[in-house]
Amino acid sequence: MSTDTTPRTAHAQHRTASTARLTPWHVLRSEWIKIWTLRSTLWTIGLTVAVLVLLAWAMAASAGIAPGQFEGGAGSASMIYLLLAPGQIFGSLVLVVLAALSITGEYGTGQVRSTFAAVPTRLPVLWAKGVVVALLTFATAAVGTALSLLLAGAIEPTMQPDWSDPEMLRIVVGTPLYIATVALLGFALGALMRNTAATIATVIGFVLVVESVLNLISWKPLEYVRPFLPSSAGARVATPEEFLDMTNQMATQAVDLSPWGGYAVLVGWVVVILGAGALRLRTRDV
Questions:
Q1: Superkingdom of this entry's organism (predicted)?
Q2: pLDDT tens-digit series, residues 3-62
Q3: pLDDT tens per residue, range 53-109
C-alpha cells in the first residue's frame, strides 16, 4: 500500500512546488532568454534589417536615376509607400522563419518536454512565446523601417517623409505593424503544425503564390474571398488610399475594407489559428 501512494504524493508535491514558483513574468523572461540562445535569432534579425535597408537604397537610387516614375509630391505618403513596400513582403517572410523556429524548434529537439515539465499548464508558455515574438519582430521591423527612411532621405531628399501628410504616420507605423503580424501568423501556424519546414512553406506559399493567384483570377465568387485573404487584407494598414483604390480596380472585391479593417482581418487569422494551436496544445500529447 505504501509502495502505491508514495510516488503519487511525491509527484503531487513536485508539481505544486514547480508551479508555485512560476509567475507569468518568470515564464516570459524564460522565453526571452531562450529565444536569444538560438543562433538563428541574430541571423534573421540582421538579415531582415539588411533586406529592408538594401531595398530602400535600391528604390532611392532608382528615384535619382528616373525621378518621373514616382507619383505624388516630394515626401508624400504615396512616395514613402513605394519606398517601403518591397520591404513589407521580403522582411515579413524572413521574420516568419524566426517566428516559426521559436516554437517548432523545441518540438524538433525535444526540449519542449522539459519546458512543459516546468510549466505543466502549457498555455502560459504559448502566450509568453507569442509576446516575445511580437516584441522582437516589431522592434526589428521598426528599426529597419527607420534606417530605410534615413538612408533614402540622405540619398534622395525628395524621399524625406512629409509628416504633414495625414496618411504618413499610418504608413510608417503600419509597415512594422504589418510585418510583425505576418510573423505572428507564422508563429500561430507553427504552434498548430509543430513542424518548421511545413510552417514556413505554408506561410510563404500562401502569401507569395496562393494569394497572388487568387487576386488574378476573374471569378465572381472570389470577389467575396479576396478582401479576407490574410496578407492582402493586412497590408492595407500600410497602404495609402490612392493605391487602395487602384488595387480595388485591378482586382474587383465585394467588400471594400478600410486600412484598419483590413488589419483587423489579419489579426483575426492570427487569433483563430493560435486558438487552434492552443487547443491542440491542451488536448494532444507532445
A1: Bacteria
A2: 444 444 444 444 544 555 678 899 999 999 999 988 889 999 999 999 999 999 998 888
A3: 999 999 888 876 555 555 667 788 988 998 999 999 889 989 999 999 999 988 888
E strand segments, the chain: none
Length of the chain: 286
**Per-residue confidence (pLDDT) for residue 1, from 0 to 100:** 39
Which triple of cell numbers denotes residue 200? 514556413
What span, in angstroms and rounded, lies between the C-alpha atoms of 15 and 120?
8
Burial class from Cβ neighbours inside 10 Å (0-12, 13-18, 19+) for residue 3 reads exposed
Which amino acid, one-letter code, is at 243? Answer: F
| CA dist list (Å): 62 to 82, 125, 149, 159 | 12, 46, 15, 12
DSSP secondary structure of 204-260: HIIIIIIHHHHHH---GGGGGTGGG-HHHHHGGGGS-HHHHHHHHHHS--SS---HH
Say if residues 203 and 273 touch (Cβ distance below 8 Å).
Answer: no
CA distances from 188 to 171, 183, 214, 262, 268 (A): 25, 9, 23, 19, 11
User: pTM for this structure?
Assistant: 0.88
